[in-house]
Amino acid sequence: MYFSNPIIRVFGMSPKPNYFFNLDISDDHEFVIERSTDGKLETLVLKNIISDAFCDSIPYPINQNVYVELSNGQHMIFEPALKWFWNTVDDPIYDGGGKIVIATDGVAQCANVPRTFLNENGCKLSNQSSACATYGTIEGSLKLSPATLVKFYGLQGAYIYTIFDLRLEDDYAIESPCTLGERSRWNKIDTCVENVKPATSDLFGSLIRYSRDTNSNLKDIYLEDEGNCHWKDVDKLQLYIQVDGECWMSIHPDAYNIYDFSEWANAHPGNTESDNFIMKPAAQGRHMIKFPSNHPMTRWNINKSKMLYIGRLGDVVEFMDIPIEGLRSRGVAEAFGVYIPKPEGKNILVCGSPGEVSNNKLSTQTFSIAHSARATLSLEGSAQQKKTVWTMIALNAKDQLRQRMAW
């Protein structure tokens, strides 16, 4: 297999190149010169920055080619290369790469690396106004309110609901709230008439009054050995009591739990081609899903493990404790106001990248593609092409994990 590089013919070009200058290559200490099989220059690698005044007239960024005529009469075209910066553990980049981020209008990412035991001994406090932190932080909590659940669907398309209409009387796995060691759930309602004896009312009234459960409408109560219900109430499942003028009703222990129904939305056996009972409420802007009255409660106990539990309606949870990775993203955090942007400016701690090695000083700007000689493409050359392709994929990929693994 053979390949040929095109001849660069500057003179006679119309219009004439805007950026064209002369370069004396008699001092070969300033360059690394690679020649082709016919002796012509193939590539000219600069060891140092060119100090020619002409360079000051070249704007940055530039969308045109830059040409040079060498002292041997040969013409070449400038081939830009990546500009390498040191960011080793012992010598981190002075501003974390902030100036590069500014120069590229955010295309380049901040090179500052989080401080860990691997690099903390070399971390430095930057005095540069361009210094950037690695990333912002997500700090804060949110209430699992109806509006929050509706917003989850709008942001991520997640089918997250609170379940209601779970029936106590049909669930034989549920014990009476009066059973020692059992957890009972109580819901505050508008009005009610007590249906228990005073001893039972006093017992649960005290447990609710002094409960540490921060949910204002739901209380989970654990009955231990500090008291007993009246004997006439020990078999009742649904109790009504008055606590400081408020009415509380015992409900199913899973009632108003919030689950991610996304997987179950597709697996639910009652779906039809035109109707999906799990997807419909979210599409209609609703945050609740009703357990069907024609389903026995055994269906709930068998299938609830297929939904991921998130919390209870009205709970306040730390944002980063939400057990769904997609809902812990920066975009969702910004929507809920719990994303703190990354700091910039002086007094930013900058740290180097563990495992990074020093740069090759010859991996700099080059002038190349200068002749029409034919050369044999060896297997070694093919391997190098693959490496080049992989390097460009790694450098240009949006996936940061992929980039890090590539390096």
Note down, in words, how this protein is organized.
This protein has 407 residues and is of the alpha+beta class. Among the domains are: 2-83 and 359-376, no CATH class; 141-165 and 256-335; 183-251, no CATH class. It has 9 helices and 22 strands. The strands form 7 sheets. It has a 6-stranded mixed beta sheet, with no helix packed on it. Strands 16-10-15-17 form a 4-stranded mixed beta sheet. Strand 3 (31-35) and strand 4 form a beta hairpin. Helix 8 packs antiparallel against helix 9. Residues 370-379 have low confidence and may be disordered.
Question: What's the structural blueprint in terms of helices and strands?
Answer:
Elements: E1 2-4, E2 20-23, E3 31-35, E4 41-46, E5 67-70, E6 75-79, H1 98-103, E7 124-126, E8 137-138, E9 141-143, H2 146-156, E10 160-164, E11 183-189, H3 198-209, E12 218-222, E13 240-243, E14 246-251, E15 257-260, H4 262-267, H5 280-283, E16 288-290, H6 297-303, E17 308-312, E18 316-318, H7 330-335, E19 339-340, E20 348-350, E21 366-368, E22 374-376, H8 379-396, H9 400-406
Parallel strand pairs: 2-5, 10-16
Antiparallel strand pairs: 1-22, 3-4, 4-21, 5-6, 6-21, 7-20, 8-19, 9-18, 10-15, 11-12, 11-14, 13-14, 15-17
Helix pairs in contact: 8-9
